[in-house]
Amino acid sequence: MTQRTRNWLLLAPAGAWFMVMLIIPLTVVFIFSFGERAPSGGVVLAFTFEQYGNLPARWAAFKNTMTLAPIGTLSALLIAYPLAYFLAVKANPKWKTILLVLVIVPFWTSILIRSYAWIFLLGGRGIPALLDVIGIEGVRLINTPFAVLVGIIYGYLPLMVFPIYVSLDKLDKRLLEASSDLGAKSWKTFLQITLPLSIPGIATGCMLVFILLMGEYLIPAMLGGGKVFFVGNALVDLFLQSRNWAYGSAVAVTLVVVMLITVTIYMRLIYRLGASREDVSIM
Amino acid sequence: MRLYAFCVYLFLYIPIGVIALFSFNAGRHASQMQGFSTKWYGKTLSNPFVMDALETSLIVAFTSALCASVFGTMAAVALQGIRGPLRTAFDMLIYIAVMIPGIVIGIATLIGLVTVFDQLNPLLAALWPEGLNPPKLRMGMGSLIAAHTMFLMALVVIIVRARLVGMDRSLIEASSDLYATPMGTFMQVTLPMIFPAILAGFLLSFTFSFDDFIIAFFVAGSETTLPIYVFSSIRRGVTPEINAIGTMVLSVSLLLLIAAQLLLQRGGHKSK
Amino acid sequence: MTKDINNISKKEFLEKLESYRNGSITRRHFLNVTGLGAATAVLGGTVPGLRPTPAFAGDIGDRVVLATWPNYHDVANFDAFTETTGAHVQVNVFGSNEEMLAKLQAGATGWDVYVPTNYTFEDYVKEDLIEPLDVSRLPNYDAAAFEPRYAEAGSVNGTLYGVPKNWGSTGMAINTKHNDGKAISSWKEFFDITMDKFSGRTVVHDYQLTTIGSALNYHGYSFNSVNPGELADAEKLLIAVKPHLFAITSDYQPPMRNGDAWLTICWSGDGKQLNSDIPEIHYALGSDGGEIWSDYYAIPKSSERKDAAYALINFMLDPNVNVKEVLTHGYPTADSRTYDMLPADLKNDPIIFPAQDLLSPLEFGAAVTLTDPNRAELMARFKSA
């Protein structure tokens, strides 16, 4: 058996799997997106751009997704970075492993249950009731973009902390010491050494969170009360309520295209900031 | 700095504390504490639907993580020795599989498979021997495992490949210089070195599959996984049963995590 | 023996007979499934001692899945069912008939019993998603006991597909504490107050029929309109109202109870439940329109536990059980046997049994609204606006 045959055999199962479970379904979605809604729901094959022409009717969902996904990613980054820095550089080595595990543990409960806890915390009997006690009245949190943002940050924080921690942990501490020995102020050390060296971690974390947010359904569904609508929610609606598969397919195709474009631009930006291709890995 | 970290941990754990607290609620309502009781744990454990959903989730997560680890590792190893269009095509597939949102995977799998099944089922019925019930293809555990395996496989390829890249090639060369068969080299040199990555890939895949709601929501047919059960219970007006499920899943995950950590440390390797 | 015995084929009949011989199914089950039970029942009806006892005594498996609406059952009844039959009841809750239909259309759901509303039956039959009911397996069903107005939609072309669960109305519930103790009673007031001092406190259903219907009533149109011009007016109103809403959800009891929401489109039973616990919450019908409806127990074709499905429906039809249901969910029953058992104050309750003149502006949902593409898309647009 030659090397070549062996490689082909090794690739065959994965290749076949991708073909049946990825390429064929995506092709069907693509074909359906040019179809028409059948009278009782479902799809009639056709070749029309009608569904794409109707896309403006979902503009708000795309707008919500395209604003809250970047805002969510950035907020998660801003909260996660100092924590990752603390864990990698400042934390007592004895406690480090435990502290790290404590960051992942919440990630091991279903995001459903975690978001459900926030329904209570942000609802009238949760945080607003506490604020009432100290004199701030009439605050409404649940079913607002803010509630969705909190849910997003909460849900994806561990995914952001980890890659950043890994890149900061690799950082040679002697560099930092040398820098301060040479009299550099601590913020200068941070800006000139620490931050640039942690860019791969930031890039990976942001990418992971951003990708997941673009397709988010659960968090807006649970904490947005049907008022904060993502493309994911619009999709579920089209397939599981109004039964318009053709239009749903067009929305899905558009979401994927928007996503590929955004991610490509994002990667370009990151490379320009000095990360190499290998650095931005998914995990 | 320390205060900041403390605040973040507080943010991370207050909701979990709330979940755990209400799981001991004696009353029916999930948002009003009416005395302490462990009855919801008993109720949950004796509810056949919860146990069934758990079983389904475990079977799906284990099978898809296993398939993904085996086929993903095979592909990663093969891709090491390939250049040219095939490599580019595979890289594309992996990129697409990781990049496509779960919700699109769910929808595409649903309508794709339903369409394919609608074509195949009459064909099967026509081909099947007279007098026997022809099999009927439909959505269920099989389609769910297949969909999970697909995107988890891409994840495993990425993880294992990262390990293979960092591997010392000279060991493999030394091994083949010593006239070891390619299989021998793989079993004795490559596999032990990439094993931590495969294990990490398996554990990660298991978690993803076990937690997945959105793909299962579309693809699971009449099967109920644990997240689907929890989702429909939340809409039903929640009882502390959900909190009990959450607390138990968390505790078990925590134990597994600690066990995995110990295992990896003993192996002397650090994966990631 | 004819080749088709009451919808089961000869082959199935022989298989059933075989399992009966093996003892894997009980005699009653065998008679029920094969339709011989119907013959026995007809004969037995004349001989008192032979009247069939309730059908759940046999082995029906250990579970049954019910797809239903929020806050719609007395949970204790399910526990009782489990105790009697050994079968646990799993409840899946939905927010609209459209959602149920979409799930059934997309393939296996695992449901055994579901509760469609009057206007959906025609489509379920057309789509071949619903099982014709075998009355002989529902000894507690007595067609004569039901008011025809609330039972007739369960039959399509003379075939019985659904037995009445209960009926009700769709009105509005307001927490009068926030409106100087005053209630409201029209959709005009409903949407106007939402855009004014109730801003951020109103809930509308995640359900095209009632949400679009109420907006149509606001303009004085029919609740069931599919006229494009009238729908456009309704859409304009809904889009204008959206920023003032608390939520779009069919599960509005939790926010009404904890004070987050003050006003909601409301099914009468929920109105009764809320009013009993929190007297300031007042339920009213719209003087300018609204929905009157009837829900039915039915079995989806795809159910794989039909014995359990029949047993559950039969159990729920038992007036002794049904009366507990009514006491819990607060919806009026169309079953005179159950009605007779209700306490007098419930029979005179203005929320459960409103005066006839208040009901007259209301309409039954029309089948056309279920499949009308414009209404479906309007709802989806409104939600994603």
Please summarize what this structure is.
By secondary structure, chain B is an all-alpha fold. Chain B contains eleven helices and no strands.
What would you say this structure looks like, in words?
The complex is a heterotrimer of chains A (283), B (272) and C (385). Chain A is built from 13 helices and 2 strands; from the N terminus they run αββαααααααααααα. Chain A starts with a helix and ends in an 11-residue tail after the last helix. Helix content of chain A is 72%, strand content 1%. A two-stranded antiparallel ribbon of chain A has the order 1-2. The model of chain A has no long low-confidence stretch (mean pLDDT 88). Chain A is globular. In chain B, α3 (48-80) packs parallel to α6 (141-165) and α4 (85-99) crosses α6. Chain B is globular and about 75 Å long. Chain B has a single domain (52-267), classed as MetI-like fold, CATH 1.10.3720.10. Chain B has helices at 2-22, 39-45, 48-80, 85-99, 102-127, 141-165, 169-177, 182-211, 214-219, 226-235, 241-267. The mean pLDDT of chain B is 86. Chain C has 385 residues and is α/β, with parallel strands linked by helices. Chain C folds into 3 domains: 1-52, no CATH class; 54-165 and 294-344, D-Maltodextrin-Binding Protein, domain 2 (3-Layer(aba) Sandwich), CATH 3.40.190; 168-292 and 353-384, Periplasmic binding protein-like II (D-Maltodextrin-Binding Protein, domain 2), CATH 3.40.190.10. Chains in contact: A-B, A-C, B-C. At the B-C interface, loops of B face β4 of C.
Low-confidence stretches of chain C: 1-10, 20-56
CATH superfamily of the largest domain in chain C: Periplasmic binding protein-like II
Q: What are the secondary-structure elements of chain B, in order, as H or E?
A: HHHHHHHHHHH
Residue share in helix of chain B: over 70%
Q: Over the alpha carbons, how many angstroms does the gyration radius of chain C reach?
A: 22 Å
**What number of structural domains do the residues of chain B give?**
1
Regions with little confidence, pLDDT below 50 for 5+ residues of chain B = none
Name of the CATH first level of chain B: Mainly Alpha
Helix content of chain C: 40-55%
Helix vs. strand class of chain B: mainly alpha
- In the CATH scheme, what's the topology name of the largest domain in chain C? D-Maltodextrin-Binding Protein, domain 2
Name of the CATH superfamily of chain B: MetI-like
Number of helices of chain C: 18
Largest sheet of chain B: none
SS summary, helix count of chain B: 11
The dominant shape of chain B is globular
The shape of chain C is: globular
